[in-house]
Amino acid sequence: MNKVCAVVGIGPGNGLALVRRFTREGYQVAMLSRDVDRLEVLEGEYPGAYAYRYDATDGERAGEVFARIRERLGPISVLLYNAGAGVFKSAEEASLQEFEDTWRVNCYGLAATTQAVLDQLREHDQASLVVIGASAALRGRAGTAPFASAKAAQRSLAQSLARQLGPENIHVAYVVIDGVVDLPRTRRAMPDKSDDFFLDADAIADSVWFLTRQQRSAWTFELDLRPFGESW
C-alpha cells in the first residue's frame, strides 16, 4: 500500500517544511490549502506532492476533497493538521465574529477534517494524526482571548481523539509550538532578534516525523517545541 500523507495548511514555514520532510521519506503528499495556485507551483518543486484546494472551515466539502485524494493516491495513513488562524485581542476588544472565525479554523476545521479522513486512517495497521498547536492552548494571556480559547479547544479535541483512537492503533499527537517560527516576515518584524530566538521549521518537521514513527508502547501525546532562549 502506498505511503500517503495529507498536510492541511501549507504556509512558507511549518506546512512547507512538512511537505519537504515527508516527500523525502517516500510519501505521496496531498497539500491542502485555500491558495491552490501557489500549491500548483510547489508541485513542480517537490515530486510526489499534489495540490488540492481546501478550506478547513467548509466542512460540507471535506468528504469530497479527501475522497478525491484517496482515489488518486490511496488511503491516507498520516494526517497533519497545520491550519491555524489567530486574532490577538482581549476578550473585551475582540468581536464575537472574530472569536467564531478563529475557532472555526483551529477547532471546527480539525473536527471536519478528522471526520472526513478517519475511515482512511482505519485502513492501515497503524496511522497517525498530528495537530500543530501553540502554547496559547495552555495559557490564555490578556491580549490573546480569541486565539487562546480556540487553541485550548483544539488541544482538548485532540486529547479526546487520542483517547478514542489509540486502541485502534491510530496515534494522535499535539505539538505545542512555543515561540516564533523563522520566516522572512518574522525576521522583518523582529530585526533585533538573534538566530537563536527563532524556531526552525525544518527542525519542527523532524520532530513531527519522529512522532509518526513511534511505537505504541511509548507514544507521545503532547510534544512542546521551543528555542532554548524561550521563557517558559
TrEMBL record:
Gene3D superfamilies: NAD(P)-binding Rossmann-like Domain. It comes from Modicisalibacter ilicicola DSM 19980. PANTHER family: OXIDOREDUCTASE, SHORT CHAIN DEHYDROGENASE/REDUCTASE FAMILY (AFU_ORTHOLOGUE AFUA_5G14000) (PTHR43431), OXIDOREDUCTASE, SHORT CHAIN DEHYDROGENASE_REDUCTASE FAMILY (AFU_ORTHOLOGUE AFUA_5G14000) (PTHR43431:SF7). This is NADP-dependent 3-hydroxy acid dehydrogenase YdfG. It comes from the Bacteria. SUPFAM superfamilies: NAD(P)-binding Rossmann-fold domains (SSF51735).
